[in-house]
Amino acid sequence: MFGVDVIRNWVQLLTARVPLDKQNLILPEKIIRLTLTRAKLCESIANQIDSDRKKAFYLAGIFSSLNEFFAGPMEDIMKELALTEDIYAALIVQENSIKEVLALVEAVEKAKWEEIHEICQKLNIRERCLFKMYAESINWTAKIQQSEQDSLLEKSPLLWS
């Protein structure tokens, strides 16, 4: 399997790079923001329920939106990557704790209040705590994207010529 930290850093860099010229935008900014926020929220929830595997939860959050980045069915995309069995299972079919957390995160994204309540009870997470983690994940994503945009501005030859 790829080194988790290497993948994590690569994906953060890849998803945070938003071209300054919006007409040349390769990935819609909304998908980039959603992916990073989803990954961070998965990791934060993992800290509450299974902190030993928080990196796996983070990666599952990233990979859960891969079909938005690449053309093709999720199963075909997943076969190309060397993922652990539990991440693969959570993204494709089987029920496990990662899939449960992904379902919770997607319920938050879609404001499915009953589903949020049910999954929070099942995972023994207070809803108030969940929404605090969600707000922190949104802020974390905004900081990453702003930092990357600032970095691109500093390196832009147009500004210094």
From TrEMBL:
Residues 1-129 form the HDOD domain. SUPFAM superfamilies: HD-domain/PDEase-like. It comes from the Bacteria. PROSITE patterns: HDOD. InterPro entries: HDOD. This is C-di-GMP-related signal transduction protein. It comes from Bacillus benzoevorans.
